[in-house]
Amino acid sequence: MLEKKVSPRLEMSHLFASGHSACSGCGEALAARLVLWAAGPDVIATSATGCLEVFSSNYPNSAWEVPWIHSLFENSAAIASGVEAALRVTGKLDQVRVIAQAGDGGTADIGLQALSGMLERGHDVLFVCYDNEAYMNTGVQRSGLTPLGAHTGTSPSGQTSSGNPNLKKDMPQIALAHRIPYVATASVGYPFDLEKKVKKALSIRGPKYMQIFSNCPLGWRHDPSETITLAKLAVETGLFPLYEYEDGQLVSARRIASKKPVEDYLRPQGRYGHLFAQESGVEMVARIQAQADVNIERYGLMAKKE
Amino acid sequence: MARRIIEGSRAVAEAVALCKPQVVAAYPITPQTHIVHELAQLVADGNLKLEFVNVESEHSAASVVLGASATGVRVFTSSSSQGLVLMAEVLFNIAGMRLPVVLACVNRAVSAPLSIWTDHQDSMVVRDAGILQFYSENAQEAADLTYLAYRVAEDHRVLLPAMVCLDGYVISHAWEVVDMPEADQVDAYLPPFQPRYRLDPTHPVSMGMYAEPDKYLEARYMVQRAMERSIGIIQDASNDFERVFGRPCPGLMEEYRMEDADTVMVAMGSMASTAKMVVDQHRESGEKLGLLKLITYRPFPEKLLYQALEPASRVVVLDKAVSLGAQGPLGTEVRSMFLGQPRPRSVSTFILGLGGRDVTESVIDDALRKARRGQQTGEFLDLRSDLDLEEV
After folding, report:
1. By CB count within 10 A, which of A33, A151, B98, B208 is most buried?
2. CATH number belonging to the domain at B253-380, selected among 3.40.50.2300, 3.20.20.60, 3.40.50.920, 3.40.50.10490
3. Distance from CA of A158 to the nearest CA of B (A)
């Protein structure tokens, strides 16, 4: 008989069990699994409506080995507030941590009000935004976190359009404006960095916000095997900087060893294909590069270590 | 038991406090605000221990109590009008998730035009949500139905949210003599909340799951069955109420002078009080008039209601809401009970009192007069004659 030897760390990853129906290469499934891996079993998790909820909870099957609740699209933070209030009033908040989850639409668009309320009221909850940069569950429409130039069903490229005309909303700064103790970005491309940040967040009392870069191979139209490579490229180009704020101060920013041009990141993705097929694409690529450069400057991503 | 002169909102707030909810979430809207003011003050003064969550919208108020209820504690929220409509999405969700949330709806008209005054349009918006709905006639009944609502909602044979409706201002802001029970009486009537399932890391469960077409129908059917079962449980809770508190709380409906009545009015909420006065006046002149005050609108106690109305030859339904393009919701449902019955009856349905228009004795008299002339359908009462109502 073959006995599989699994390290306790890896066993923990099964708090989000396999057998769910996410697409291959799904960054959100990977991110959720990493979050629970880092958090451990003593958590209650909430989910907004969206891909993660649908592919993990098709009754009577559930991928969740921790207590989990889904209600609606826009209220993950408010549900988590209620869970936290109940734990607080019954004296259980020392033993149980609360994690609220939502996609980028459920966080930064329709869920922004409930999230703002949760952050402002000081609930002891870690809010995790799985950022795949569009409404994927409904078939790829733009959200407030869709990046500049990306083609989606509602920001299509065409004769008069180079894709999404707007800049990605700076959601971590909005969270930061609530003067909460911890704000961080993370990426499925850097699982140990993600783990460390979840653990740190859960060790801090009060509201925490994490935004995790989570590819959607279907919506971004890249090969499922490219998920990790592209997630790393998003960081190495400066488009998705990884950083942490504690008590309003920038305390870490992942440095870029050698800066990659944004084109390396954009070209393998079908959502940016039009930028390389139409003349106006050149200008849009330049604007996207400028965004990456702003991030590199702003967070000191190329600065020498002191 | 202490009889005191207090505001209707205060009576409801104290009744809620006696039920010892552990999480209350609320957002301001007129005329519901007094209830949560009172609760917040009880907490601030150290007379009530609970988590009071000041949310940023009614949508979040309902969501917070949903999350807290799922975590296993008794909860309360309240709203009115636009706030209740904003909550509607969550209320459907709470019912489908079988969480016994109790809320008060201080009834107010729905905009436009903007109106802060009372009618039943707001609670009617969520009549199909799977929420038990109790309509109170006065402050006493609003308080009493609160204890009953918790008891029925949390019964493991029911497990559905419950809404206590009270007419804005007419009940919420009026001062009345109200019997407030002692804490141990409420404790004897209402056992501690025992959730059937709750979010707990020692026994992980998944709640609010996705259902394919091969399961959704069954989930809705089970809510429907729970609604049907709750009729008997409301009756039991009503009987027990009298035993514990020493005074009645009818629960499903109240029959007023219906013995030998050939004409019976059907009404809900505070206008039942006015209708009782009309009944008394008509009885004095020898007319066989009665009133059926419907308290439980959801579940709709059709069999019992039919039995009660069966002997009458004329039924007059007074609706403080309208399904625009059809009739009043109560009128439609009462009339449908008599369809296909061997003995034909005149069932007249009227719309009145919208947006705080006073429901006076003369308006009700007008309904009775018109009903006597022949069956009326969704007739608006007390319309102004000095405005061109045919103008688009």
Report:
1. A151
2. 3.40.50.920
3. 36
